[in-house]
Structures
1.
Amino acid sequence: MALVTPGTNPFPLNRNSSNASSGRTTPTPSPTDAERRTIELSTSLDQSTRYAFADLLAAILRMDFIESSDENKEFSEETLELMMKHLKLPEKTNRSIRAHLVGEGTTDDLVALITMVKSDAFLQKNGMTVLLADMVTIFVDTGRYDCRYRVLMRHVSALLAVHWDAVEEIEDTLTHLLIEQQYDESE
């Protein structure tokens, strides 16, 4: 799931709450805003958009990671599987995208894939940042958000014309939300 607000931070924080013990202002999640903005990309995006996005990810993973080492090949395969599962594509489509990851039957026409993703009505209305917010959430949920995820995100953001600062803001806000959640659970 991703949190959506066109032109704003997809992970809203209520920065006006104060920490009673220290008297300082700390960021805290605003669950009502977050709940109102939660969407499921697998149902919000057209199937052709989900296919194009998954194929774009396969192309980026292939070019950046697949041939550099066995560890990176495993990372690429696991990351693609994770995203395909999240996008809820048909298994026949997933087989095709898996083949594209290893260079079989693929086209490197990234422009066509990017154009297809950018032409999605939902993304035109809500912005490309929702895809990146969704990716950050999915990757953090794995429990191992390493630099390879950031390299992938950096390339996706560049290709979709999303400024990298927006991705870093998503990461920062998610960090604050996780810290706040951990703090609430430990009380």
Note: Strands lie at 2-3, 13-14, 28-29, 38-39.
2.
Amino acid sequence: MKTFRDQIHATRRRAGLTLLEIVLALAVFSIAALALVGTINQIADAGTESQQLLEIEQSLESLIDEYGKMPQIREMDEQIKPGADGVAYRVLIEQVKDLQNQDGRFLQNTFRVLVVARWDDGSGPFELQAETYRYAGAFLPVN
């Protein structure tokens, strides 16, 4: 038969094990919570980067439309300084002299409109570009 002293001793051992179990459970939970927070931060960074890239792509498309639809298109090289978003643009319009159609005939008065976006997001410089071709008489006013 167990004495009172043995019962107290057994209770203390169980209490010590319970405390150890709680500490281990908190450690496992802390590691899992830390991993979850890290994953959420990575998702937020990816979302921010994706949003910035979408805005730059829309700006490229807008500049292609603006410069490609000028009534009097001409060769030019224009630099657009970085704005609040830190993105600098370069618009390059050059006449294409060796462009042929399917029949092998050279296409006259065709221009290449190239827009290049450059920025640095802290991890290094990035560059994104878009281009289109345009016939010089495409947007002339009709009399």
Note: The chain has a mean pLDDT of 87.
3.
Amino acid sequence: MAKLNYHHLQYFHAIATHGTIAKASNHIHITPQTLSAQLSLLENQLGYKLFERKGKRLILNEMGHITFRYSQEIFSLGDELLHALKNYSTGFAFKFSVGVTDVIAKVFSFNFLKTIYNMDDSIKLVCKESSLE
């Protein structure tokens, strides 16, 4: 099996987050055609369609939800790697991990955690969302 392309996951994540290829392409500054082609490459590599079409909107299907959760973990690990390397020379880094269930409103979670997020760069906030299942 070929290795996953980090960019393909980023494009997939943008589409899942924004709901349409047009909105996602505007957000990440690539053409809709390129974004659609990159999504097709990822789906072909994985062997599954990741979205259901509802008009112009793309809704995650079961495989899409699984891929989305893994992509969040992969991006979180990538951020942790960058943070660890950035703080390696200082020898100090504090990691603050928080788990948030999907039944809690994102606005509430963000407002609750933004104080920690805006603190010193030596503090790394890791927030993971999941269902209670």
Note: The two ends are 30 Å apart (CA to CA).
4.
Amino acid sequence: MVLEKDEVFRIKARSMLEGLRLLWDKGYRQVELECDNAILVKIILVGEAFDSHLMELRAIHKLIQRNW
């Protein structure tokens, strides 16, 4: 099975999203998230996720805006 670059990016974003949701639902509020995809980290930290066409990035943006 061959994955395209955009599929790998989406999978990493989805993994991050699911991890954050799980942490939030379990009541964790002081967390440190690591990711080996510099582009994904930059998009999230700079705030570009808000305007993304990827649902996962928009959802991550909403999650990190919560009161952690």
Note: Residues 49 and 61 are 6 Å apart (CA to CA).
